[in-house]
Batch of 2 targets.
Target 1
Amino acid sequence: MQRREEFLEWLRGIEKKWQGVWREKRVFEAHPSGDRPKYFITVPYPYSNGPLHIGHGRTYTIGDIIARYKRLRGFNVLFPMAFHITGTPIIAYSEMISRGDERTIGLYRDYISLYIEDKDEVEKILESFKDPLNLAVFFAERIQRDFEELGYSIDWRRRFHTGEPIYNRFVTWQYFKLADKGLITRGDHIVTYCLLHRQPEGEDDIQDADVNPVEIVEYTAVKFTLPSRGWILLAATLRPETLFGVTNMWVHPEGDYVVFDWRGEKLVVSEKAFLKFKHQYPEEEVSFVTRIKGRDLIGENAVSPFGDNVVVLPAWFVDVENATGVVYSEPSDAPYDYVALIDLKSNPDLINKYSLKPDLVQSIEPRKIIDVPGISGHHAEIAVKSAGVKSQLDPRIEDITKEVYREQFYNGVMIVDYAGIKGLPVKEAREKVKELLYSMGKAIPFYELNRRAYCRGGGEIIVAKIAGQWFINYNVKWLKEKSRKMIEEDVVKIVPSKYKKLFLDTIDWLDKRPCARKRGIGTSLPWDQDWIIESLSDSTIYMAFYTIAHII
Ligand SMILES: [Zn+2]
């Protein structure tokens, strides 16, 4: 044991000695020289929102090995380094520290303590992190020291961070170039949006989004009229093709609902959905009419876009926090609908409590509209019976639903005869019915997340439509052709070459990408100062910076 310690001490002595010599003789500072070929290498610079982790060690050691190898082969090597501080994560952490978020404060206290022993000093530095720039600069300086101790052969004279004016000028130059080439466009954009901070927030800002992705889902919100009230129930579905099998509507009897005016129609959705609606359609078109309970709607007759008369019934599986909080029932194919119908039919007290007509409720039967090979009878009924489900609140229905829906998506065929639907596979019918309903004005899109989500600062995330979002348009023929050629002809060489296909595939599907947001550290859009250029767009061609820094 002792020998091992002595051996390590001896090694560290050698390390210290030679690192001292490198520093003194400035051996990694590259100067123009006519007698050696040039070699320039960069590695994407670290995001300085915390200390390095072992993954950084791997990434930068690879770069350093290449740089050293090339020097030994007689090249004049330039290996510069910088620090990435633009974007929202650093601001988000800084804000959480300002707000007194215990978890973040604890985390950063630990981070600082890796470098500083004096407890008062640690608290002083932590306090200074309420300014995001202090946070970024503190870790940038530590990372540089760690890189030096690792012995990386970096020319540190060229260090900078991406919030500096010289880098802003580079990003501005890049955006004027993109605009000149007609690659910047503007339009509506569907985004994840934080209700607390009242701004779009992406994967970086959302809790656990890296391990449990948050996706935007488009529901078809179908209009069912309530003739006796002159209102319209907005029932959200992911399966508009099932509308042909509708038997009734569901609302949560204790749920809060809102009636509101929108473009001359009085729509009814849950109170939560009303809030979301105002973020997805221009708020000035929306005006509140009245607030009601779900039970106020029960027993009403509703009329579907295809003229079916259906009754509004109570169901407890309906989640007023999700989508519109109004559901149409298709018990042949939807397990929740089937179980809720059986629950109600077998509960005379409930039928009585909501003054429903017993004969009417008992007469409701599933209507088969989709044929699935190997399934004779109603798919939902077969699936819940074989699992032994007894109530609509049984959590297993979630998985049973996924299974039934998957099977129908891949193997289901429509047997209902309407508007050329008959014989179509379910996945085609779904798109066709959706487009039909939209074009008839009988449905509108309603966006929802695939799961509940909160930002790192505790705000609830919903889906919102942002008007006037700036995009880079990658879906341009000449750009795609040029990019493909660069990769196919090895002008840009991908190592290992098996990833070449991945790059080519990406070029194929790449479309418009939002390139700016309303907050963050970084460079303003040169022609619209309200917007900050997004941190991926400002660092993608960072290596070009060194080649033009002297002329911008
Ligand atoms: Zn937030």
Target 2
Amino acid sequence: MKTSAGVTYSAFTGWSDEPTDIATPFRGDIRCDVAVVGGGLAGMATALRLAERGVDVVLLESGYCGWGASSRNAGYLSNELAGEAEVLQFFYKNKLKNLTRFAENSAQFTEGLIERFDIDCDYEATGNIKAAISEAQLGRLRRNAEILQEAGSNIEFGDGAQLGLPSTFLGGIFVRGGGLMNPGRFTAGIRSALLASGARVFERTTVRSVEPNGARVTVEVPSGRVDAERVVLATNANTRELTIGPSGVGPVYTSVVETDPVDPEALEAIGWTTRAGIVTPHQILENYRRTPRGTLLYGTRRLRGAPSGPLGAQAPDPAVVDDLTRGFHQRFPTLNYLAPQRAWGGWIAMTSFLPVAGEVAKNVFYGVSCNGHGLAQSPYLGTLLADRLAGDDPHDDLQTLWRPRPPRLPSFVLSTPVFEAGWAVDRLTDRFGI
Ligand SMILES: Cc1cc2nc3c(=O)[nH]c(=O)nc-3n(C[C@H](O)[C@H](O)[C@H](O)COP(=O)(O)OP(=O)(O)OC[C@H]3O[C@@H](n4cnc5c(N)ncnc54)[C@H](O)[C@@H]3O)c2cc1C
């Protein structure tokens, strides 16, 4: 769909095309050792590892594997936790070192997958930068840098010129691990590895219910039933649609916008020499990156809560896209001739900032590693869960996240009015530099 402003709005990812080899939907009755519900990076990694370890695994996916957030995101492979370090330290002081290690290991693990399966996803190990637009933000980042260093993060604090940041940014935290990629291609690469494994994969198959049934678990789909010894819910933002899913996982819609191609000299002229991804420390972050297509991508800044009922495929709200573009022009006034070309987005799962995993009912496991950081964390978390189900002692990183259910966030916290209030606070702090 084209709007009058010439932006193409998509309810799909802007990074890759739909696969041409979609697996047949599931019909009938079967038994298996483990059924995985959801074929994003978390579910695919779980099923892939289980298949590699000789476990009889079935994966059921509503769309096709990678259809959800996994292929739609901004492509930041981050070795950090979501949330501001000062807040994390306040709530999770005793766990912060272990959580930091989980985040660091996640990025390294995911880089290992790219290498192992030789996935052509334009990955560049650039690291990422948290960059301040005001002295007040810079002060906060300096305090956060101390906490992160203490917790074991491999980071460096620098001014804008040292970090190769465009002139809008005063400086910030360079996070050495991770980098940038095309997540559509990465997800497609993991899907190919999964389809070539011994896992039985069914796409266009929506799971309606998951019910413990004596020593086993019954998974109902519209035209059949899977009788599994154990089930893994890897349903991300859709988790609330299964009544057995852990409460405390809420859906939030987030958007990205891609510009026309930019002349690299125009970037150099404003001092934008880093290839790292840039995020700001606003209440609701802004992100800016170069893409391998020679364009720029910017996103988030304004979020949308979910309506009640099932979440469908959804294109971004034009008001959000306009605001994102306004923000882009404010941060990069000399690039204001660059027109937004297309916009897409997707549903992410929010917990209270932390990735979480656990056993929500007898033999029913779940893993959620989102809060906008799942590109690195989902494949790692899925693999750790698989290793546990295959009989290993739980890995320390998995133990760190383990809870029967995530801490419950009051539902209003993830509503559009609350996000709009956060956005308004950000604009006030922008205006007064506080
Ligand atoms: C616009 C955007 C930008 C983002 N940017 C970044 C970023 O730069 N870096 C980063 O690390 N993270 C980012 N994220 C978050 C990241 O994409 C997610 O954390 C990650 O992909 C989650 O992986 P997942 O496998 O848990 O979920 P998903 O990829 O959402 O997969 C869940 C799957 O479960 C399926 N499913 C759900 N319910 C059912 C059911 N009942 N039956 C069958 N199938 C079902 C869905 O169809 C879906 O395919 C972003 C997300 C979005 C939307």
